[in-house]
Structure formats: structure tokens, C-alpha cells
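Troubleshooting entry. Yesterday's outputs looked truncated, so today I'm pasting the complete records for two proteins to confirm everything comes through intact. If either block looks cut off, that's the bug. Protein one:
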Amino acid sequence: MNGVGEARRRASEAQGAAIGTRQHVTVLLPVALAADPPWPAGPLPFAVGARVADAAGRRGLFTPAAARALYDRRWHLRTARTEGPLGLDGMELLRTPTARNTQQALAVMHFTVAGGTPMLPLLRSVSHRRQAGQPDPLTGAMAPAALLDGVADTAVPAAPFALSRPYTVAFLTPGADLGALALRDAETGEVGAAADEFLRSLASRSVPDDIPLGPESVPEARAEVRRISADWSALVLRQGAAFLGHRADTGAGDFYDWAEYNARTVYLDALLLGTVQRHHIDELTDDLSAVFEGPGLARRVAALEQRIALFRSTYWREHLSAHGPANDLLLAFQDKHRLPERFEQILGEAADYARLAQTQESQQIAGALGVLTVLGLPLGTALSILQVLGDSHPWHLALALTASFAATAAALTTRYGRLVVSSLRGGARRR
């Protein structure tokens, strides 16, 4: 094994054996919610000191639109269940209905990893890494299907781009023994590359041996890390996010009480909103791609425009509050999933399709007016002549009608007549 491979192996072993002072994992997964659960309303409340992060306490930190999306249709259940290395602290359900799936919701499960248990191997097992070497901890008594039995359907929804594995949000604070794997350098005060690499492993649920990162990619990867403060950092990736402390955790009463409080409430809510946005954008993108399948183009485009407007007013936010890391986390999630670019593309496509539908409607109206002209002009001329002549003989009237119909048929064989008929046929076929 060459030097690079050996260094990567040692880093993987060190990360896989690392044990934090505080270790929490929040699991997000899509579910179907046929009825409101018999749980208390609002998010799962966490407290530090006299401050409680319930719905009322969190609403003031967000814009009104974001608060409505996050808290108006949300329920929680506090529990204390342990199975192996995981302890379940509580569960939440957030309704996120779409036009295609009115029962869609997000399940949020808050776990604490038992002391003395390395956290990263558990995350790798959740991700079903082939080299994980241990079973998925979200099975048996901790399986979402068992935990939400009778409350929500955890079957993978038939939605576009649905998550193949749950989204995880990890929180770990270090003890003094983790050294450069998490702590700032004692002399320079800088966060070392090993700490950022460990943070990436927690967010990606992998070790360096699973997904080797090329040396040329390291600066870009480190630039994605968000320094929340001197004491801790965050990283948001496509399949997970992570928070990692950079000084030793001294236990209860430490600043990390507040870090844990924020990571499991406000910052989690920012990622929840990004997940809801991604679900809606996935569905809108899929439905736009099928807009020409079937009749009723104008009607289908109008319905999509209404859905886009509703999504934009209800869920689409790029700023949650006037300031703070929650905005940065939401923007990082949106950037990882290219949500702003995809939404701009949706708006552009919808505008193009609306113009096309309007053009086809105009052509159909013009064609209908042309038909009225072709049919009405000969008939009107014949009847006017009979009226001027004062002729009311039935046979003469029948002869005039026959002549007008013949003139109409002849007019429809001309280039103008064929254009009118073609416009009507084309409009009807597309609609």
C-alpha cells in the first residue's frame, strides 16, 4: 500500500473509533400521513436554562411565512426508548402536502448515541456502506415502520427523486482525547484539515476509504464548511449534515448546551424547510416534463402556474431570519441540491409553456372567426339579394341557400380556407 493509501486507512480507523462527549443523530425521512396523529401540536420542545424551543419560542426567529410552513401542521411525541446504542428522545411529524401527494409528510426522529459508542460506524450503517461491518441501527425496535406503526406509512413514496436512505443530521462534541480530529490547534488556534475531514465524514456518513477525496478537491471541500463560531462548525451535504465542536466539552453548563439546543431546533428547522422545498421542486420539475402528455395544454399549464405561485408564496424562502447561521444552513442545502437554479428553470419553462398555450388559443380564436366569415359571407349575401329583390318564394330561398353552401365549400378549398381548417384542427388536437 502506498503512502497516500496508508494515510487514508489510518484516518478512516481514527474516525471510526472516535467517541464524542455528546452524540446525537436526527433522522429525516418521507412518510405518508393519512390523518393527523394523536400527538401534541408543535415541534418537539427542547430546553436550556429557562429558554424552551417550542413553537411559540421558535416562531419569533423566523419570517412569518417560514414559521407557518414549519409549525402550523407539526406534531411531536416525547419518548424514552433504548435499543442497543441508540436512545430515542422523541419524534415529530410535519405535513408537507403537494398537489400529487396530499398525504406527504416528514418524520423527524431524535436519537442519542450511547456513551462509549463510536458515532461514525452507526452513520455508515444507516447509509448501508458495504464496508460498514454492522447492521443498520434503524431496524428492529428502532425501525421507523415500528416506531410509527398505526400513525404514518413509512413505505418509500412513489415521488420523483425520493430519498433512497434517510437524511441524517449528526451532532458531536469532542473530549480532549480527540485532538486534531476535532480540536483547534493549541498553538495556532486553527481548525486543522483532519477536523474538517472528520466533519465531512459525519455529514456524508462515510470514511476516507469509502469515498476518497482527491488532493485537488480538498480546498473546495473545506470551503463548504460553515464556521458557526470559534467553538463549532457545520457542513451540509446532499445526504446528510453534521455539527462538530472544536474545543473540549466540559459537560453540563458548558456552551455546548446552547450549541446542542440550536442544532436540534432552529438549525434543524432550516434543513427541514430546505427538504420541503426540494420535494416540491422535484414534483414541479417532473410535472413540467409531462405537460405535453395528454389533452388540455392550456388547462394543464394554468394549473401548474397556480401550483408554482402557491409554492412560491408558501414554501420558497432563501432567508429565514434577518441574520444568523440558520440562513447559511438553508442556503447551503439549497446550493447542494441546486434549488435556486432549478426553480428559475421551472419559472422559465412555465412562462414558455404559457406563451405557447396563449398562442394556440389565439390561433384557435382566429380560426373560429375565419370559419364564421367563410360560412356567413355567402349566406348573408344571398339572403340580402333576395331581400332587396323582394323575393320570398320558397324555391328561390332554397336555391339561394344551396348556392351559398356551394360557395362556402369552394371557399374552404382555397388557401385561406385550408389555413382556417388547419388552424382549428391543430388547436383542437393540442388542447
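Protein two, checking that the full record survives here as well:
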Amino acid sequence: MATHAHHSPARERDPDREQRSGPQGAESPESHEIPEAHESREVPESPEAHEHHETPESPESSRSQETPEGSRNVSGPGAPKDTNDAVPLARTRTGAGLLTGGLLASVLVLALVSAAHGAYDIPVTDVIASVRHRAGLGGHALDRVGESVLWNVRLPRVVLALLVGASLGCAGALMQGVFGNPLAEPGIIGISSGAAVGAVASIALGLSFLGNWTITACAFVAGLVTVLLVYAMSRSGGRTEVVTLILTGIAVNAFAGALIGLFIFFADNAQITQITFWQLGSLSQATWPKVLAVLPCALLGLAIAPLYARKLDLLALGERPARHLGIDVERLRIILVLVVALFTAAAVAVAGIITFVGLLVPHLLRMAHGPGHRFLVPGSALGGALMLVAGDLAARTVAEPAELPLGVLTALFGSPFFFWLLLRTRRRQGGWA
């Protein structure tokens, strides 16, 4: 019976066991052998031990221990949650506001400089005075040559560069968000090459059913038809896989390149010159009617794109988490691909193929501020406008009186950046294989 009594529940008051379960138990070598979950189950059996562990097991202390983890605060449990969360949020909003203001100011200043400089220089003060005079805000008119150059040549070109650059930059940010790939850009699904086929075909076949609008209309319609075709071919079982969409775009780009080569083969010398210059990208034929042709497409896309910034942030978590959070991924993808097609087809229709704007600008802004699309989408529009105005100014002034193709300049600056981006991505991932 003594032996039985020794193994009875009274052994819970064994001094050695009380030493392990008490406040001093952490110093006992045997306490390291007892799992943490086992201690939490056996401690409440002893009233004394329960008194010692009552404070850390209370609901208030549990919440205080969870607070640092939920708010990512590494200070003590007594630190207030709202204070630690508000500081980074305020800094983020301040940084986004400063960066947006800086981009907007840079765009305005560079637009004035671009309108003033060229083969016929006009002082910036005279440009401002002429704009104020036309707007009825004072100022004065320039001489006959100055007014003609400014309002018939320079300003249509500057405004068209702003619209095309904003369209391509915003389209690049949307493409990278939709595909979840930082290397995506508007031409990846064949929109640019499809629009090029339409323009080249209208030139080579001598079409003129819409007068001066024939090339623009053919390029725009061909771009939209191409993206719808690519999307329909990559859709299966009511869903569209990103990999299939990209591979289909690559195939369409190759086929469009073959069609362009075929049209060039049958074109005469004058048509070949027009096709070649149009393919390289240029704003030299900018007019106010072309500005009015791009303006509705650009404004509509720029109004729609920011509305989907939050959904793009959720999509960045992955398709399955985004669906669990209530995002219709398929519908989101369809809408944004159509917006990108609207942007790109309109830009290519009036300016030709201009590459790397949609790749370069979103990446620079992502490195400067982060991947949040609430800033990235409108910021990419401002950055694209800034880049294209600067590129057009360089194209007009670097080799005066000749003019360099704008698409060549953007490719010269964008290709090294793309190569650096590939190397940077490979180093971060530890190699591709």
C-alpha cells in the first residue's frame, strides 16, 4: 500500500515537481527536457503553480503578447499599436505625395522647355505669354512665325508626347500587375505588333478610305482585334492562364513580324520609307486632330485604371488568395487587358512603335517608392509622360537639323536597363535554374 500511495496523485506535491513547475523551474536542467505544450497542460493541476502562472495566462496578457506580432512591433507589449502603425503609414503617404508632386512639376517644366527649343528657338517667357494670351489671362501674342511654330508644330507635338507617354507608362504598370511579372510590358501580348500590321497594310495597299485618318484607324482597329484574338486563343475552360497568354502573344508577335516583312517586300520605295520611319516611332507628324484622336482613349483609360489599384494589390498575393478575398480574377484580367489594348493601340496608331517606356517607368517608380498600385498606376502615367517628352526633345535637338527616331532613343536607353534588370533578378533568385 505504501508503494501504491507513493504513485498516487499525491505525488503532485513532490518538491522536485514543484521546483520544475514553479517560477524557478526555468533554471532547472530538467525543465529543458519538458515540452512547452506539456507544461501548459499540467501546470493548472497544482493550485500553487496556477497562482504563479495566472498572470501570463490571462486574456489581457495574451492580447498584449499578440499585439507586437500583429502590428510587427518589436518593442515591449506595453507599446501602443496605433502609434507604431501610424508612423510608417504617414511616411508612406508623405513620400507618395512628394514624389507625385515632383513628377508633376518636372512634367510641366519639361513641357515648357520642349515647346521653347528646337530648330526655331522661342524664349520660355514668350511661350508662357502666348499661352496666357490664348487663354484670355493677359500676356501677349508672338510674331507671325513664332505663333505658327508654337501652336501648329510645337504644342501639338508636346501634348501628343504627354498623352502617348502617359498611356504607355500606365499600360506597363497594369501589364506587370495583371501578369504578376515585373518584366511584362504592353507589347508582350502582341498589341503593338498587331497595330503595326494594320498601319503597314494600309500604307502598302494604298488605302485611303478615311483620308489622313486611314493609317491611324487601321492601326487602332488591328491592335484591338489582335488582343481580342490572343485572349480568345489563350482561354480554355472559362479561365485564362497567364503562361498561355504570354506564349500566345509571342506567337502572334512572330506572325505579325512576318506579315510586316511581306508587306514591305511588295511595297515601292516611297512606301518603304514611310513604313520604316513609322516603325521606328516618331512624333514628327503630330497635329491637333491626332491629339484629339488619342485624347478620348487616354482620358478614358487613365480614369479607369486607378479604380483597380486595390484589386491589383490583392492580386499580387496570388490568384487563390485574391479569389478568397472576393476578387473576380478573370473579370479583372479581361477589363485591364482591354484597357491596356486601348492605351497601346491608340499610342501606336499616332506615334508608331515606341518600346521600353512601359517597362522602364514602372520599375523606376517601384524601386523609388514600393509596389503599391495606388501610387504606381498614376505615377507611371506621369513618369511615362516625362520620359517621352524628354525623349522627343532629345530626338529633335541632338542631331539638328536632322531628327532621330524616337523609338530608337527609347530602345537605346531601355535595353541596357532591361539587361541590368535581368542580372539583378538573377542574382536575387540565386540563378534561373
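Both blocks look complete. Sanity check on protein two: The two ends are 71 Å apart (CA to CA).
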